[in-house]
Amino acid sequence: MPVKALYPGTFDPPTNGHVDLIQRGSKLFDHLTVAILVNPVKNPLFTVEERVEMLEEVTGPLGNVSVATFDGLMVAFAREVGASAVLRGIRAISDYEHEFQMALMNRRLAPEVETVFLQPAGRYSFVSSRMVKEVFSFGGDISGLVPPNVVKKLRARIKNGG
User: Fold this and answer.
1) Where are the alpha helices (DSSP H) in 62-124?
2) Is residue 157 very low, low, confident or very high in pLDDT (cuts 50, 70, 90)?
3) Is 27 designated active site?
4) What CA–CA distance (Å, rounded) separates 110 from 107?
5) Domains plus CATH for the chain?
6) Which of 91, 107, 125, 157 is catalytic?
7) Is residue 26 annotated as a catalytic residue, yes or no?
8) Is 42 one of the annotated active-site residues of the chain?
């Protein structure tokens, strides 16, 4: 039976760390759904549609990866798409503490859905969407931290006044 996994997040914007986990996850699972959480409370820089577009562009070459959106409980969406695993990235001990708590709650809510933790490649272990946005907003160089299509979107956003 094919193993489907979900890689949830806000991806605002997608980073090369995200892409690294997506590429590696696509090799571990028969199908990987990159699931963008619709959460207006986080006040995202990019619309959900823009994030879907950016992720579809970078995942296009991967035949077993799709991009979707969801709101509400992640485990409910995992059940909806038939995922038996959730892929999560861990960059540091602080990530682990938060992710471990979430994994335990998810296990309580959906015991049939396993959480799989992956560390990003070392060169991306410090990269976060929040940090990328902050560095970019102050004119810093983010090349190598996000895919080229994301750099273009960020430049267009700043050029058009946010």
Assistant:
1) 74-81, 93-109
2) confident
3) no
4) 5
5) 4-159 (3.40.50.620)
6) 91
7) no
8) yes
User: What spatial distance separates the first Cα and last Cα of the chain, rounded to whole Å?
Assistant: 46
* Annotation marks residue 107 as catalytic: no
User: Structure pTM?
Assistant: 0.93
Q: What is the pLDDT of residue 92?
A: 81
Rounded to an integer, what distance in angstroms lies between the CA atom of residue 106 and that of residue 115?
Answer: 8
Give strand ranges (E) for the chain. 4-9, 31-37, 65-70, 85-89, 114-118
CB-based contact 87:25 (threshold 8 Å): yes
pLDDT classification of 42: cutoffs 50, 70, 90: confident
How many CB atoms within 10 Å of residue 19?
Answer: 21
d(CA 20, CA 137): 24
Distance CA 55, CA 9 (A): 12
Please list the residues that pair with 64 across neighbouring strands: none
Q: Choose, from 18, 51, 88, 133, the residue flagged as catalytic.
A: 18
Pairwise CA distance, residues 118 & 95, whole Å:
11
In the set 51, 88, 129, 153, the catalytic residue is 129
119: tokens are 């560390």
Paired tokens of 108: 């309580």
